[in-house]
Amino acid sequence: MEMTGGGVCLVSRIQRPALDHLFGRWYNLVISQQTCRRYENWEKRTLGRYDDENRIRIRFTTHAGKVTRIEIVQYEAYLAGKWRPLVRYDTAHGYLHRDVMKPDGTQEKMKIPYTSSSEALTQAIDEIRRQWRFYRRVWEEEMK
Question: Residues 6 or more apart from 71 whose CB is under 8 A from it?
Answer without folding.
Answer: 43, 59, 60, 61, 90, 91
